[in-house]
Write a structure and sequence with these properties.
Elements (H helix, E strand, L loop, with lengths): L1 H4 L6 E6 L4 H9 L4 E9 L6 H12 L3 E6 L25 H7 L5 H4 L2 E7 L4 H15 L2 E7 L12 H17 L4 E4 L24 H15 L5 E2 L3 E3 L2 E8 L2 E8 L18 E6 L8 E4 L3 H11 L8 E5 L3
Parallel strand pairs: 1-2, 2-3, 3-4, 4-5, 5-6
Antiparallel strand pairs: 7-9, 8-9, 9-10, 10-13, 11-12, 11-13
Helix pairs in contact: 6-7, 7-8
């Protein structure tokens, strides 16, 4: 199946907890043409062994190798008394001191080809992604981000498809702001049984959910900008974030929810307050489109939110009618 996907120009990143064993290395060798990069999750207590181990692995595999630190808190309690029994890995922030500490003052680029970060999309994700891109360029390394689009507690059923959609759209916008950073979403296929139940971008029959439609609609808009798309810094309004998308004389906006119980923003500052906008719900592409002025965008979003039977409205997309 992996070789069949190669015709679709799909390449895979694989990861291993520690160094891959001989069987895994043989599999990597057999499938090298399908692979793009390799991530190695590495416990901090073994970081003294890291430089020599990774140097040998890079030479053997002939593929870029990225390092993802295993979180030391695994198996402990957090501040709220919750047991941290889920394995997480990746640098939690674009802090150069974290890299220096983990690599024992070795240059990160001398040890590995890149590093892996782990971020929540609700915690200033686009801004942090841009900072990670700058940090990676400064250190001469590749950068991956594992983007958590679902809630933090695995014991809760993450069944809100629109929350997954909003987080995925935010990550998609961030990828435009920092195109050299690879972003991996933690939700793709529904998990419908057991402790970790949650909604993905597609269900178990591979039917698209809201997030799939949202990302497809946004990708179409970005494609129409013919490679000139640029996403500006988000404007924070109440508990919403408005992301301007520009290309030439064209300006569009995506309004993303940043809090589960928030309503659409009470005001909207566009470059031209008299401009008319076409607003539609990215999660429901068949929803009626609403024509409105910049000042009245709040009313349009509110009406669409009220008409929705979902707990969380959005994300929404607004495009100028005259362009």
């Amino acid at each position: 199946r992996l070789f069949d996907l190669r015709s679709q120009r799909l390449r895979l990143t694989v990861y291993s907890l520690g160094l891959p064993d001989l069987v895994a290395r043989d599999a990597i060798e057999a499938c090298r043409d399908l692979l793009d990069r390799v991530e190695i999750v590495w416990p901090e207590r073994q970081k003294a062994d890291l430089p020599n181990a990774i140097a040998a692995l890079r030479s053997e595999l002939g593929l870029p190798v990225l390092i993802s630190p295993l979180w030391a808190e695994h198996g402990k309690m957090d501040a709220q008394g919750r047991h941290l029994h889920v394995i997480n890995h990746g640098f939690p922030d674009a802090d150069p001191d974290l890299l220096r500490s983990f690599f024992d003052d070795h240059a990160a680029g001398d040890v590995a080809n890149g590093v892996v970060f782990w971020l929540d999309v609700n915690d200033d994700f686009p801004e942090t992604t841009v900072a990670i891109a700058d940090l990676a360029k400064e250190h001469g390394v590749l950068a991956h981000i594992i983007a958590r689009v679902t809630g933090a507690n695995p014991a809760e059923w993450q069944q809100d498809a629109r929350r997954t959609a909003t987080g995925s759209v935010i990550a998609q916008l961030a990828s435009v702001m920092a195109p050299d950073v690879r972003i991996f979403l933690d939700a793709f296929l529904d998990v419908d049984r057991g402790y970790y139940r949650r909604a993905g971008l597609i269900d178990k029959q591979c039917n698209p959910r809201a997030g799939w439609h949202a990302m497809r609609a946004l990708r179409s808009e970005l494609h129409d900008l013919a490679g000139n798309a640029a996403v500006g810094q988000p404007v924070r309004l109440d508990r919403w974030s408005l992301y301007p998308i520009g290309g030439g004389d064209r300006v569009s906006y995506v309004a993303c929810l940043s809090d589960q119980d928030s309503r659409p923003p009470s005001s909207f500052e566009a470059q031209d307050q008299d401009a008319r906008f076409k607003v539609f719900d990215l999660c429901s592409p068949g929803a009626p489109e609403t024509m409105t002025t910049g000042d009245a965008l709040h009313g349009a979003l509110s009406a669409m939110a009220d008409a929705s039977d979902m707990a969380v409205p959005g994300p929404y997309f607004a495009a100028r009618q005259d362009q």
